[in-house]
Write a structure and sequence with these properties.
Structural class: alpha+beta
Strand order of the largest sheet: 1-3-2
Number of domains: 1
Shape: globular
Helix content: 40-55%
Strand content: 5-15%
Largest sheet: 3 strands, antiparallel
Number of helices: 5
Distance between the termini: 29 Å
Radius of gyration: 13 Å
Number of strands: 3
């Protein structure tokens, strides 16, 4: 269950952030890969769920790195892998 301080984004925002088509986000919602809530009849996707999903899917990770937020990760210098859209290889 999401906490009150959870970051939520719309499907279109999620698609832009992760460099994928909104249909990709909708499919992931339909298959239960991404968690969401409904606010006033609109899907609000939990950002933490998006990051986890993007790290598990190679095709999404590649798109995120080239067209989404991943293209700026090196500038952010995030040290905690849990919060990085591009965790270090194990």
């Amino acid at each position: 269950m999401p906490t009150d301080n959870a970051v939520r984004v719309t499907i279109s925002e999620a698609a832009r952030l992760f460099g994928v088509n909104p249909r990709t986000i909708r499919r992931a919602i339909a298959t239960g890969e991404i968690r969401y809530i409904v606010v006033q009849g609109r899907y609000k996707v939990l950002f933490e769920s998006l990051v986890t999903w993007s790290q598990r899917k190679t095709s999404v990770r590649n798109k995120t790195n080239s067209h989404g937020i991943g293209q700026w990760v090196d500038q952010w210098k995030i040290k905690n892998a849990r919060y990085s859209p591009r965790p270090p290889a194990e």
